[in-house]
Amino acid sequence: MEPIAREPLPGLRQRTRAFIKVQDGCDNHCTFCITTIARGEGRSRLLADVIADVQSALDGGTQEIVLTGVHLGSWGYELDAHLRDLVKAILTHTDTPRLRMSSLEPWDLDADFFSLWEDERLCQHLHLPLQSGCASTLKRMARKTTPASFRDLVTAARQIMPDVAITTDVIAGFPGETDDEFAESLEFIHEMDFAGGHAFTYRPGPGPGQRASQARSGTRSGKSAMLFCENYSKKGRKFIVGVFVGQETSVLWESVTQLDSQGWQLEGLTGNYLRVEAVAPQPRWNHLDRVKLTRQTKDGLVVGEIL
User: I need a labelling partner for 187 at 20 to 30 A (CA). Which of 29, 97, 169, 282 fits?
Assistant: First the structure.
C-alpha cells in the first residue's frame, strides 16, 4: 500500500504553494467510485507529523499551505479527532500566511466548522462535491447527503463568509437518471449559484459499474457540456464581475514576466481562487500583496492594481 507521506518534504525547493497530504484512503462506498478498492481504508497522518511538514514548507519560503487527502474531511476519525482540530493546530502553531483546503465531502462538515474562518489566513474557497442535485440520483450513488442538507451547509458557509467561492463536481448521465431527474439536478445547481466546478459524463468501467450501465435511461451525451457551460462559465463570470470587481483583496503572485519598459507582468490567485493579473515595477513572485480588482479581461482574468 502506498505510504501517506511523500518524499522529498515540502520546502526543500521554493514554491508558492505546498500541498501537504494529511490523509489517504476512503471508507465511503459511492457506487460510481473505486477509490475504496484502489486506495484502501481511510487513514490519517499524526498531527505532529503534519505540523512538521507544514513548518518545513514554510521554512523553504512557501506562502500558502494546501491540505490534501483522498477523503480529507475524514482526517482524524481513527484518532478520535476532527479536521477542525488539525486546522486549529496549524493556525496556532505555525505562522503560515495562507491555509487552503482541497475537496471536502459535505457530510464531513457542520455549521460550526465554518467558524474557523474567523482567522483571515484561511482561504475563502470551498470545493464541495455535489455529484447530483437530485435526491433519488444521490441515493443511487450512495452519497451521504441530500439536496436539502447540502443547501443548509452552503447557507451556513455563506453566512460566515459572504465572499466565499464554492465550487463543485457533477456527474451527468448516471445509470437510471431520467430527463426529469437531470432537470431537477440542473435546477438545484443553478439555485446554489456555484462559482465554478467540473462536470463529467458517467462512463462505466469493468465489473458492477459495467452491468449498471445497462440500466441507463434518458441520458444524453451533451448533458456534461450543458452543465459545464451553464454553471461554470456563466455563473463563474457573473461571480467575478458582479461581486468582486471594485473590491480589495490579497493576491499571491505565482507567475512573473518581465515587460520591455513597463516593469513586470504578475499573475496570481486570491484566497477565493480568482486569477488576477497586474503590472508592478519589481518582480513580486511569491509575495502576498493587497490588490484592488478593477476589471475583467476577455480571457477571464481579473485586472488589479497593487495598493
Answer: 29
